[in-house]
Amino acid sequence: MKKIAFILVIIFSFSCKTEPGVAVDYSLLPKNETHKVVLDLSQVFNTFQIDELSKKIIDYEQQTTNEIVVLTVDSISPFDDIHTYSSAIGDYWGVGKKDKDNGLVIVLRKNQKHIWLSTGDGTSKILTDSICQDIIDNTMIPYFKDGNYYLGIYEGLDRIMKTWH
């Protein structure tokens, strides 16, 4: 039953697109003043893992200009849904080049078993909803089920980067 509930949460909470026109109070969002590409507020990763994920993301951005951030949070309160929250993070942090809208925000709420990918308009032309869903279902979630969030994100990033070049 737990497995079915976990899968249902993922299916019902996934989308790859951002929600335009939603008014957001950015003061309610976490700040990222040092522009980290991995902000682990839930302490899901150890220092080595954060460094490895960050290096992978930074190297990819230098090769492609595509920008990715990973954020782990315990709560998205006072937001009602992770979709609005992750889209707001992308806007607030300025993820993606303005002229290309080539950003991707990955938000992981480990305790609620939610993973969300929010893409900029330019990104969603390549990383479609179905591609993102496949990456989540077939790459990330198998690792998450084993409690290995690092490998789930790492391998998910690998698939994202191979698809989105």
Layout of strands and helices, then pairs:
Layout: H1 2-13, E1 38-40, H2 47-64, E2 67-72, H3 82-93, E3 103-109, E4 114-119, H4 121-124, H5 129-145, H6 149-163
Parallel strand pairs: 1-2, 2-3
Antiparallel strand pairs: 3-4
Helix content: 40-55%
Shape: globular
User: Which band does the percent of strand residues land in?
Assistant: 5-15%
Largest sheet, strands/sense/barrel: 4 strands, mixed
Strand order of the largest sheet: 1-2-3-4
Euclidean distance between termini CA atoms: 39 Å
Please trace the helix and strand order, writing H or E for each element.
HEHEHEEHHH
- Second-tier CATH architecture: Roll
| Radius of gyration, CA atoms, in whole angstroms | 15 Å
Global structural class: alpha/beta
Number of domains: 1
Unreliable segments of 5+ consecutive residues: 1-19
Tell me the number of helical segments per DSSP (H or I, 4 or more residues long).
6
Topology-level CATH name: Diaminopimelate Epimerase, Chain A, domain 1
Mean pLDDT: 86
β-strand number: 4
CATH class placement = Alpha Beta
Structural account:
47% of the residues lie in helices and 13% in strands. It has 165 residues and is α/β, with parallel strands linked by helices. It has a single domain (2-15, 36-163), classed as Diaminopimelate Epimerase, Chain A, domain 1. A 4-stranded mixed β-sheet has the order 1-2-3-4. Helix 2 runs parallel beside helix 6 and helix 5 runs antiparallel to helix 6.
Write a brief structural summary.
This protein is of the alpha/beta class and 165 residues long. The protein has helices at residues 2-13, 47-64, 82-93, 121-124, 129-145, 149-163, and strands at residues 38-40, 67-72, 103-109, 114-119. It is built from 6 helices and 4 strands.
